[in-house]
């Protein structure tokens, strides 16, 4: 069977076993194909107390679905969520379970791929969709692998802007990128922790962002690196491995930043020498190094 929606989405093939009874719809072995998507649904259940409830599909009823080996285009989803109309992304190898109405859903994305190098496995929950800007999200990422080229394309799709040239260059120098972590909050106020692994070293991060006044955001975070090959990352032969602990506390907005950065450099290679046990303190945007000292009890900050 083929169907068309008023906004011009066309389903070229729709197949499966369908059961309808007393406000409940149950689909087994479902198959949906459009020009850009191919969806396999082993099961999809839409449970409502009466048919009137489906007028409020986003908030009412109990729903459950499972998808396997699916290809899904954001162009098709955009007919139902217009904010996605400029994304033009295609997801492949989608294997997922989802339950709950659109406005209060949870699920497990066992695998999904996009671009040349990006793969994701994550458990998630979302409230407030389809309004992405006001939605509340929780995510537990067990695997995310990607590359600079894929990140640049995703940034352009989701924000309308490519990565700055310098950021893209640094990301390319990092090689393949792997990430695990957790996220809890909205897109503008959230708590997150992450462990980043690249071909030239890794880092861990704890971050808390809060909404303040006039579009200002409070930022509180800790970053740690271990044997990060700084010279390769920045294309600077004078720099060697970097291990450090950094704490950030401040406020950020599109017009100004006011933050204090403090921490300890455990190891920094410069021009063939290793510097260690250095404390630092300063503020982004201020000229020069604000303060850098040897840690108490250390006889020397330089090793030859």
Can you give a write-up of this model?
The structure is a single chain. Helix content is 10%, strand content 56%. It has 304 residues and is mainly beta. The strands form two sheets. It has an 18-stranded antiparallel sheet that branches. The longest helix has 12 residues, at 148-159.
Spans of at least 5 consecutive residues whose pLDDT stays below 50 are: 299-304
Helix content: 10-25%
Number of strands: 20
**Total number of helical segments?**
4
- Structural class call reads mainly beta
Q: Span between N and C termini?
A: 76 Å
Largest β-sheet summary: 18 strands, antiparallel
Compute the gyration radius: what is it? 24 Å
Order of helices and strands: EEEEEEHEEEEHHEEEEHEEEEEE
> Mean pLDDT, rounded to whole units?
85
Give the strand content: over 45%
**Shape, per Cα inertia axes:** elongated
Helices and strands, with pairings:
Elements: E1 3-4, E2 10-11, E3 13-21, E4 24-33, E5 38-47, E6 62-73, H1 74-77, E7 90-99, E8 104-114, E9 118-127, E10 136-146, H2 148-159, H3 165-174, E11 177-185, E12 190-198, E13 201-211, E14 217-229, H4 230-234, E15 239-252, E16 257-270, E17 273-275, E18 278-282, E19 291-294, E20 302-303
Antiparallel strand pairs: 1-2, 3-4, 4-5, 5-6, 6-7, 7-8, 8-9, 9-10, 10-11, 11-12, 12-13, 13-14, 14-15, 15-16, 16-17, 16-18, 17-20, 18-19
């Amino acid at each position: 069977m083929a169907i068309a929606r008023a906004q011009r989405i066309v389903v070229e093939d729709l197949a499966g076993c369908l059961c309808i009874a007393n406000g409940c719809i149950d689909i087994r072995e479902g198959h949906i194909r459009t020009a850009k998507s191919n969806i396999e649904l082993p099961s999809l259940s839409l449970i409502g107390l009466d048919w009137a409830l489906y007028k409020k599909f986003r908030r009412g009823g109990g729903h459950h679905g499972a998808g396997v080996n699916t290809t899904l285009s954001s162009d098709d989803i955009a007919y139902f969520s217009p904010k996605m109309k400029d994304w033009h992304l295609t997801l492949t190898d989608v294997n997922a379970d989802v339950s709950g109405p659109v406005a209060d859903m949870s699920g497990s994305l066992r695998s999904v791929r996009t671009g040349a190098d990006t793969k994701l496995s994550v458990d998630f929950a979302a409230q407030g969709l389809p309004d992405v800007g006001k939605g509340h999200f929780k995510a537990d990422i067990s695997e995310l692998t990607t590359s600079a080229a894929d990140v640049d394309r995703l940034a352009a799709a989701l924000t309308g802007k490519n990565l700055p040239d310098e950021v893209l260059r640094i990301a390319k120098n990092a090689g393949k990128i792997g990430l695990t972590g957790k996220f809890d909050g909205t897109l503008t106020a959230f708590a997150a922790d992450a462990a980043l692994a690249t071909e030239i070293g890794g880092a861990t991060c704890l971050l808390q962002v809060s909404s303040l006044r006039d579009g200002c955001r409070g930022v509180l975070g800790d970053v740690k690196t271990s044997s990060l090959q700084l010279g390769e990352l920045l294309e600077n032969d004078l720099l060697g491995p970097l291990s450090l602990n950094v704490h950030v506390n401040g406020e950020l907005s599109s017009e100004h930043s006011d933050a204090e950065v403090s921490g300890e450099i455990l190891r920094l290679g410069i021009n063939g020498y290793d510097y260690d046990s250095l404390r630092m303190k300063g503020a982004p945007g201020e000229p020069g190094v604000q303060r850098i000292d040897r840690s108490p009890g250390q006889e020397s900050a330089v090793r030859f």
